[in-house]
Amino acid sequence: MNFTDIIHLTWQDINDDKILFQRQKTMKSNTDISVRINDTMREVLDRWANKQKNEKDFVFPFLVGINSLEKRKAEVHQVVKVTNHCMNQIGAKLGIKEKLNTYVARHSSATRLLRSNAPLAMIKEKLGHKKFSTTESYLGSFEKEVEDKYLDKL
């Protein structure tokens, strides 16, 4: 999930063991995406989610009380900016030289699925893409490093 989708989650999107949502970016397509809640996700929900669990309430507190679409968009942008900053601080402490951000995290998750031999159709579905070509181009930029590694052996 990207951060915009996470921030817009409401309690009606969460059942016992899964999240069922529509991407904010492609909401008009009316395509549901299902994500199984694993132990790590459960810990995040237990620690950071709003305790009030009415169906229409946001799961996370960022957009509570913000009704204007313009202000919501600005708040999402700010949350992503702060998150990216924190990710880079953590990365620096871990000795990671590459820039880290939520965009890279989403790509990395998809790439890990691909490298674990997950079917492209499943990756496409989990990313919320309509076309395989979108998923392939999404993964392609990260596969270049793997390609270079193999070509270096020639």
From TrEMBL:
PROSITE patterns: TYR_RECOMBINASE (PS51898). Keywords: DNA recombination. It comes from the Bacteria. Residues 1-151 form the Tyr recombinase domain. Gene3D superfamilies: Intergrase catalytic core. The keyword Cytoplasm does not apply. The keyword Membrane does not apply. This is Tyrosine recombinase XerC.
